[in-house]
Amino acid sequence: MIGPLKLLFHPLPVRLDPAPLRSAAEPASWSLPGRADSRVLLTFHGTAAVYQAVRSLRLADGEKVLIPSYNCGHELEPVLRAGAAVGYYGVDARLDVDLDDLAAAIDSSTRAVLVTHYFGFPQRIEPIRRLCDAQGLSLIEDCAHALFSCDGDTPIGVAGDFAVYSLRKSLPLPHGGALVCHDPRRPLPGFLPRPPRFSTALKWLDRYRKSFQPPRRRLLRPLAIVALLAARLAVDMGRGLGALGRRLGAVQWDPDDESLRFPDAVLEWGAAASVEQALHRARPRAIVAARRRNFARLLSAGARFTGCVPLVGELPPGVCPLYFPVLAEDPLELVRRLQRHAVSAVQWWDQFHPAVPWRQFPEARRLKERVVVLPIHQDLQDAHMDRIIGLLERG
Fold first, then answer.
1. Are residues 233 and 302 in the same domain?
2. Do 175 and 43 lie in a common domain?
């Protein structure tokens, strides 16, 4: 029988049993995809990376960036805070960009197009690239879900002028985003200030607390439990101190907070040194293999699900999926049912940014109202996936 399931979106920062994520065939470090003259700027999160991309465009008043109608708001808010105007274009039920609608949305004030590769699956980027070139527009690829994804053999994120990543979505980090600039004409800051050490340390502890796994050796279990209890106490005390600090004017921010009311200061933060060090220890090949295996297990059982259907019907070569999205008949009931069994299902992007004219995009509204995502991260094993499948089949 499987014990309490650790079905969290983010795995353990320092694994007690690291074997599943290690591969002797992999290099000791890796780098984000780019070109010979590409530059990388590490940021606090993906939202800050979007902000830095738009800042580098140096847009005049009234010049705008086109955003897909299906959005979470965190790719829209930094555009507005950078002083740019925003326009929108449609996305269909399969999450594909409506190329005709995109072309129709371009006008004399448009300066850039942001394209999202949802859940790690590539958009048809070549026609979008040609359209941007024909109109003299910059192309920003939102790769927040696509850190290790490829379109066949081509890494996602190399077609645009900018690629934006949310490193913490795919890796067990306290925070972390990245902006890769492929256009040498665009200025970037040489360095961004580190975030507060207190909040970084607190988030590392919180990652440990949430992802605790008892060691296999029984003699070590009492020590591990003591460490877990100490981490819980430290996190609870730290949150209290953080709340007090905010009242006194100190800027602290949890990147897992989905609120759009984040302080402007976080858009200028870089990544902590501990995050940079942890990045080099990632093993992309093993991560991609594990996520693809878990996604495929759910996809093969999708026809038997009760109350929901898979949103994506295939797993193309090269794709490293971030989650397994489903269309639910009753999203809240599905989420509650799965969470009762320790499965961290989430109704995806259910927040509606007030700047979007949602009535003009009924398909995007439908997606926001019905999509639920299931965990497939690299720490999950076959037994965990079997448990999720069983819960979805029983309804």
1. no
2. yes
* Number of domains within the chain: 3
Q: How far is CA 70 from CA 63, 254, 328, in A?
A: 21, 24, 17
Contact 177, 267 (CB under 8 A): no
265-296 tens-digit pLDDT: 999 999 999 999 899 889 999 999 999 999 99
Structural tokens at position 4: 């309490």
Same domain, 156 and 214: no
> What b/e readout covers 70-85, taking b as 16+ CB neighbours within 10 angstroms?
bbbbbbbbbbbbbebe
Q: For the packed helices 331-340 and 382-394, what is the interaxial angle rounded to 10 degrees?
A: 130
Q: Which two three-digit tokens encode residue 38?
A: 């590409």
pLDDT digits (tens, 9 = 90+) for 370-384: 999 999 999 999 999
**Six-digit token pair at 320?**
């490293």
Residue 165 pairs with which residues in a beta bridge? 178
Closest CA relative to residue 242, chosen from 199, 204, 206, 273: 199
DSSP assignment, residue 359? Answer: G
Supply the range of the domain harboring residue 219: 197-250
Same structural domain for residues 48 and 174?
Answer: yes
How far is it, in rounded angstroms, from Cα 193 to Cα 269? 5
The verdict on residue 385 lying in a domain is: yes
Whole-model pTM: value is 0.86
